[in-house]
Structure formats: C-alpha cells, structure tokens
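agent> step 3/5: call structure_predict on target 'Damage-inducible protein DinB' (Cohnella kolymensis).
agent> reason: downstream docking stage needs a structural representation; sequence fetched in step 2, passing through unchanged.
tool.input:
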Amino acid sequence: MLDVLKKQYGFIQSARQTLFEFLKEIPFQELHNTVPNFGKASIIRTHIHVADCYRYWLGSFAFKQKRADFSFASEYDIEHSDVDKVQSRFELVDEVVQRFLDEFNARWFENIANEVKWQEEHWSTTPLWLLTHTETHEFHHKGQIVSMARHLGYSPPNTDI
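tool.output (status=ok):
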C-alpha cells in the first residue's frame, strides 16, 4: 500500500507543479488580490493555507505535538510571499508527507488522538483519514485557485491530467 500512496502523492506533486508554473506568469500583486466569494480571499493566501494544512495535520497532529508547537503562516509571511516562496513551503510539505508515509506505513487504521488548535477537546482519527483529508483539501483549494485566476482574467492549464 505504501508504494501506491507514494505514487499517488507523486501525481499530486505533478499537478501542483503545473499550477506553480502557471501561477509564475501572474504578477505578484494579482496573486494577492482579493477575489470576492472565495474563503481564503487570494491565490497566495489559499495556497499557503493548503501547505499549512498538510504541515498541521500530517506533521503536528499526527506526531502528537502540542498546540503551541505549531504556528500557521504569519500575515507578514503571506503578504510577502510569491510563488517561489510558496513552492519552498511545499518542499517542507513534501518532507512532512514522506515522513508521515514512512511512519504510518501498515498502521493506516491506528487511532491517533491529539489536541486541535481551534478546539478545546482532543480529537481522534486515523492516519488514512489524515492523508485523505489533506490531499482532497488541496484539490478542493486547487479548484478555487484556478477559479480565482479565471476571475482575474487568466486562463489556467488543465491541472488534473
């Protein structure tokens, strides 16, 4: 199963790379423009949110770190990020995913309980749920990012094939 999950993540990285190459064509300021009716407001903010989600759930939560041990991107980091900085953030994500896959190999249904930053009580789930959540979360927001680009007047490539 580990080989399948690593191969699947490789497909995700490939789609992400296609998106990065497209986003490099969009001027810095436009990547930060607020696009109404999207939850995270801008392309850069949304992409950083995705990276932080991976790092939080697969890194901090799965490895049972305390709430105080994890911090999301600061407003300064977000406002000063370009595509290269977001790519660097995803290089950290790739390391976390690799560590997660190696650690939980053959333990996909084991219970993991930990604190959740925005909840008072501990929450419990499985490694397979965490991996599924982060990957589907990325694709949900990837769809929003390409939609935001269209709203800004750009024609994104197909990032799903």
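agent> step 4/5: record observation. The two ends are 23 Å apart (CA to CA).
agent> proceeding.
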